[in-house]
Amino acid sequence: MNLKHLVYFRELAHTQHMSKAAENLGISQPTLSYSIDNLEKQLGVPLFEHEGRNIRLSRFGKIYLKFVSSGLDEIERGNAILKQLLNVNQGIIKMGFTDTLGQHLIPELVASFKKKDETRDITFELFQGTTSELLDGLIKEKYDFVLSSKLPEVGNLSSKSKLDFLPIIKQEIMLAVPKNHPLAKYDAVEVKQISDYPFIAFSKNSTFRPLIDQILKNADVTPNTKFEIEEDHTMMGFVEFNQGIALIPNMAQVDNSKVKLIHLTDNDLEQKLYMVIKDNRFLPPSVSRFQNFLARYCKENYKNKHRLL
């Protein structure tokens, strides 16, 4: 079935006048008449009834018009959306990121990107989750890209076989203690100083766990672990209520009246964060534009200035 024939049918149904419909469509009247005849033959029913020189929709035509109009409206809407997505100055960016990035880096990036007039019509759909959730969603194309740490496997698949990991920024690992803790009087401590206090560790399925374990191993520290927790905000709650101290990635919006973050003088390991993209996937120009901006911004404002998140 020819899509143009459906467009012709809709216009003729609206005007119910052959010459006027042909003029509106920019085609000859014989072409229009042929197209409608052809459509009626394919359907096996008359769509119009003739009354002298006038025509009107048949009972079948009235029913068919509802479906044709709805279908063509959806096609036109789809065309408009694709046109918008292919416009470098418009479109929707679907970005996933881990929770700690939502406190400072993501708002900073989006606000800086949208300062220019030509990027103000680009909108964002933002999603948060754990690294494993985000990478799984990226493989299923729920997002255009994600910002997260790196996992060797996603489900039962090697992440390298499906995803590209582009390093963009490093995140400092700090010691979190309650405000009334003995170590809270220091701005920086050595890792070995935590061994005397109850410790809150990341759970084994957390992406932070291997890094924290390596930091403790390098300092020859066996922590007095009381809790294992997967999510860093929950961990901060336990620290706040004096249930232990914890090594966590730097969090910008910590309540300084309840928890203090302390630098580690003898640790040079940081959490590496990546822009993750699915292999061989077409991305709209607006998404590529933001990705290029993101990489450049992080290089100029963090890497080149030796700043950690």
Annotation keywords:
alpha/beta; DNA-binding; D-Maltodextrin-Binding Protein, domain 2; Transcription regulator; 4-stranded mixed sheet; 309 residues; 3 domains; Arc Repressor Mutant, subunit A; 15 strands; 39% helix; HTH-type_LysR_regulators; LysR_HTH_N; DNA-binding transcription factor activity
Overview of the structural elements:
The protein is 39% helix and 24% strand. It has 309 residues and is an alpha/beta fold. The protein has 3 domains: 83 residues, Winged helix-like DNA-binding domain superfamily/Winged helix DNA-binding domain (Arc Repressor Mutant, subunit A); 111 residues, D-Maltodextrin-Binding Protein, domain 2, CATH 3.40.190.10; 97 residues, Periplasmic binding protein-like II (D-Maltodextrin-Binding Protein, domain 2). The strands form 5 sheets. A 5-stranded mixed beta sheet has the order 4-3-5-15-8, with helices on both faces. The chain has a 4-stranded mixed beta sheet with strand order 10-14-9-13, with helices on one face.
